[in-house]
């Protein structure tokens, strides 16, 4: 029986076999537990900045008898990783895009030195995360989109490369791989957003003081979404 929600299952699916991974902001450590139990990962760090979730992680790891393969560490972002850990894959899931971007920007060269794969699942603000990846030579190699409990989640997998290629504005917004896959969940998400932006532009047009800059931005989004859908 899996401990993972549909969202975390989708994150799990992105992890390569025989990896040494760190789950940053692990909370309950469900993801590392499942990855080690299923022998997808050979070693994992469950990193947490808060003491409460850190203790919860430790309890789960002990309960499953996995404390020799999962280290639960208290610390801010990637500071829980040392060069000697040889972590090749970092997962950051279940947070806002701004927080994920900040955690990545605060990572030192040593903490990132062995990291070849990033698997990121922002709850919101996906374009910010894609911008960080492109600016730091991580190429987006896979993406997924799942709907759970009336929320749509995107998962972004990226690999370190010498020099990544730039993305177009629609790709930053909607995801280069998701645009290609165009799954029913993707189409439903963007049809809903399109409707929202169209309504917002209509309402803003009736406002006493018209914010033309905001209307222009919305119209730009509408154009991108219509092009892709
Ligand atoms: N990753 C799990 C998931 O996807 O279900 C838990 C997500 S939970 C909503 C976010 C967790 O990130 C919280 O437990 C929080 O304490 C932790 N967190 C927030 N900022 C962090 C940081 N800078 N470094 C490490 N953990 C952080």
Output the CATH class name of the largest domain. Alpha Beta
Mean pLDDT: 95
Would you identify the CATH H-level superfamily of the largest domain? Vaccinia Virus protein VP39
CATH architecture classification of the largest domain: 3-Layer(aba) Sandwich
CATH fold naming of the largest domain: Rossmann fold
Order the strands across the largest sheet as they lie in space.
Answer: 3-2-1-4-5-7-6
Largest sheet: 7 strands, mixed
What fraction of residues sit in β-strands? 15-25%
Distinct ligands, ions and cofactors found in the model: S-adenosylmethionine
Number of domains: 2
What descriptive keywords fit this protein?
about 230 residues, alpha/beta, Rossmann fold, seven-stranded mixed β-sheet, elongated, binds S-adenosylmethionine
Outline the secondary-structure elements.
Layout: H1 6-13, E1 19-24, H2 30-37, E2 41-48, H3 51-63, E3 70-74, E4 89-95, H4 97-105, H5 109-112, E5 117-122, H6 126-135, E6 138-148, E7 151-160, H7 169-174, H8 176-181, H9 184-205, H10 212-228
Parallel strand pairs: 1-2, 1-4, 2-3, 4-5
Antiparallel strand pairs: 5-7, 6-7
Helix pairs in contact: 4-6, 9-10
The structure holds S-adenosylmethionine.
């Amino acid at each position: 029986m899996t401990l993972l929600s549909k969202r975390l299952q989708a994150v799990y699916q992105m992890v390569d076999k025989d990896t040494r991974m760190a789950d940053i902001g692990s909370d309950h450590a469900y993801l590392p537990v499942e990855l080690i139990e299923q022998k997808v990962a050979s070693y994992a760090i469950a990193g947490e900045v808060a003491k409460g979730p850190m203790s919860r992680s430790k309890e789960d790891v002990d309960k499953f008898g996995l404390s020799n393969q999962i280290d639960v560490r208290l610390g801010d972002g990637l500071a829980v990783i040392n060069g000697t850990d040889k972590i090749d894959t970092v997962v950051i899931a279940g947070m806002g895009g701004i927080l994920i971007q900040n955690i990545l920007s605060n990572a030192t060269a040593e903490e990132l030195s062995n990291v070849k794969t990033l698997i990121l699942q922002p709850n919101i603000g996906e374009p910010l995360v894609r911008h960080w990846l492109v600016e730091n030579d991580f190429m987006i190699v896979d993406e997924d989109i799942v709907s759970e409990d009336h929320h749509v989640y995107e998962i972004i997998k990226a690999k370190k490369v010498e020099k990544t290629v730039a993305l177009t504005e629609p790709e930053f917004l909607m995801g280069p791989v998701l645009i290609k896959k165009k799954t029913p969940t993707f189409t439903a998400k963007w049809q809903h957003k399109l409707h929202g932006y169209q309504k917002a532009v209509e309402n803003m047009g009736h406002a006493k003081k018209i914010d033309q800059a905001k209307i222009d931005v919305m119209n730009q989004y509408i154009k991108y979404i219509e092009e892709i859908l």
